């Protein structure tokens, strides 16, 4: 294994030459939501441990979570989780061999973006207003 | 005219160019299916709770049909995400020491966080 890249020869171009596809955005967003969801799952684990440790700890954690910046983060994490799950469905459809045609693949990806926004808005609208 | 360039031996072996990775791929996909069931279930179960006071939430989590899927969600969630982060590390980190160190750290973090989350669920469900 190389201990760092020291070869001075140029690499072949990628981002500069490939025509943009929405499936590229879907893919990199999927990877980014993995990290966001990891943080979100840690927050869930912290919340559960606070619940286990008593009313004082629970009140502290809840206070942080439902503060203004906390809510902002929670909405972002909801969107991240929803997108990850919808994207998982999209990948499972592809694993089954369906939806590889260019139009279908792009449509599936756009659908996952739109559905993420709709589900997140519906959830938080319900939570904050209902 | 066969529509494949694979030799019969390649088909029997069932491997791709990397010679391994099928098990990882299947684990990841099965994990996703589990999360697609557990996440909505736990979310809905929490949303219909109603009483979000401390005693209310403790009473909610004491019921096994709330606690067990939640414990599974945390456990399967960390395991699956750690698997995906492993791929990211393998993709981007190539230094001899940093690659091994990050992969080990990823494994340890997944185990530590899984166990911590499950501990939280069970102590909240069963404790005083």
Low-pLDDT stretches of chain A are none
What's the alpha carbon Rg of chain B, rounded to whole Å? 20 Å
Tell me the major beta sheet of chain A: none
* Most extensive protein-chain contact, per-chain counts: A-B, 33 and 34 residues
Classification by helices and strands of chain A:
mainly alpha
Strand content of chain B: under 5%
Overall pLDDT confidence of chain B: 90
The largest β sheet of chain B comes out as: none
Model description:
The complex is a heterodimer of chains A (130) and B (128). Chain A has 130 residues and is mainly alpha-helical. Helices cover 76% and strands 0% of the residues of chain A. Chain A has helices at residues 22-53, 55-65, 68-95, 102-129. Chain A is extended. The model of chain A has no long low-confidence stretch (mean pLDDT 90). Chain B is mostly helical and 128 residues long. In chain B, 79% of the residues lie in helices and 0% in strands. Chain B has helices at residues 8-13, 22-47, 54-62, 64-92, 96-126. Chain B is elongated and about 65 Å long. Chain B starts with 7 loop residues before the first helix and ends with a helix. The A-B interface holds A 1-5, 31, 34-35, 37-38, 41-42, 44-45, 47-53, 55, 58-59, 81, 85, 88-89, 91-92, 95, 126-127 and B 29, 32-33, 35-36, 39, 47, 54, 57-58, 61, 70, 74, 77-78, 81, 84-85, 88, 94-97, 99, 113, 116-117, 119-124, 127.
Task: Please summarize what this structure is.
The complex is a heterodimer of chains A (130) and B (128). Helices cover 76% and strands 0% of the residues of chain A.
What keyword list fits this structure?
heterodimer; A: 130 residues; mainly alpha; 4 helices; 76% helix; B: 128 residues; 79% helix; elongated
Draw up the topology in text.
The complex is a heterodimer of chains A (130) and B (128).
Chain A: H1 22-53, H2 55-65, H3 68-95, H4 102-129
Helix pairs in contact in A: 1-2, 1-3, 3-4
Chain B: H1 8-13, H2 22-47, H3 54-62, H4 64-92, H5 96-126
